[in-house]
Amino acid sequence: MDMSERITEARESVGLNKSELARRLGVSRASVTAWETGAVNNLKHDHLFELSKITGFSAKWLATGEGEKKRKTASTTVAYLPGLRNSKDAGSSEQKNHELEFLGHMDAWDSDTALGPDEVEVPLFREVEIAAGGGRTEVIENHGAKLRFARSTLARAGVDPANAACATVKGNSMERLIPDGTTVGVDTGDKEIRDGEIYAFDHDGMLRVKYLQRKPGGGLRVISENLSEYPPEDYGPEEVEQDIRMIGRVFWWSVLR
């Protein structure tokens, strides 16, 4: 059974037609048809996880056909992408007790756990308040807790392990795509702005994750996913030069459900 057949089985199991499923996922009916005919053989991770929530089928099984077909019930599900191993120190004790629904292998680890042969530790960027700065912040690499990625995962994304980093999104400006609290993977070796891609950047001491578009003369347009609350922001070349420091292109994100 391939993924198209698994998606069809999941949809039919909850009595939804293609139009109803499309509406609940926020996609077109044509997209669902493309998934179920095999015309498109992969899903965006947010669509996959939402499909899992709607149908009760495991995201791992839907994507790969492996593991338990039905996901276990839990009040909260933490969804992880391939290759991420999450530190015991990184989340709250409440978070550790939640069900883990994931694609690929994941283990709990702490600072005493040795790196596996296919693993690399990835630093986290964060905002810190500047001493005597009157509430001003700066963006630095966190030299404490780190996340672990599989080298194979980074290789599939075309990311040099030496250039991999993570950051945490704050606020709802990128919802529904990237909710508040989401961890994103950043390729710090890819800072060339390509219109419509998502980037992490330091904006005068604020860590931001947004779509970016170039403007003539070296200006920049900053675009949120949540346009109803956050209209586009335009910055001239001098503002870009003085206030914006590129961290890198976002190549991955993990959504906490």
Q: Overall pLDDT, averaged? A: 76
Q: What is the helical fraction, as a range of percent?
A: 10-25%
Return Rg in Å: 20 Å
**CATH homologous superfamily label of the largest domain:** Umud Fragment, subunit A
CATH architecture of the largest domain: Ribbon
Number of domains: 2
Count of DSSP-assigned helices: 8
The CATH class of the largest domain is: Mainly Beta
CATH level-3 fold name of the largest domain:
Umud Fragment, subunit A
Low-confidence stretches: 72-110
Can I get a quick summary?
The protein folds into two domains: 3-71, lambda repressor-like DNA-binding domains (434 Repressor (Amino-terminal Domain), Orthogonal Bundle), CATH 1.10.260; 84-254, Umud Fragment, subunit A, CATH 2.10.109.10. Helix content is 24%, strand content 31%. The protein has helices spanning 3-13, 18-25, 29-37, 45-55, 59-64, 93-96, 151-156, 237-243, and strands spanning 77-80, 84-85, 99-102, 119-129, 137-150, 164-168, 183-187, 198-203, 206-215, 219-223, 233-235, 244-254.
Layout: helices, strands, pairs:
Elements: H1 3-13, H2 18-25, H3 29-37, H4 45-55, H5 59-64, E1 77-80, E2 84-85, H6 93-96, E3 99-102, E4 119-129, E5 137-150, H7 151-156, E6 164-168, E7 183-187, E8 198-203, E9 206-215, E10 219-223, E11 233-235, H8 237-243, E12 244-254
Parallel strand pairs: 1-3, 4-6
Antiparallel strand pairs: 2-5, 4-5, 6-7, 7-12, 8-9, 8-12, 9-10, 10-11
Helix pairs in contact: 2-3
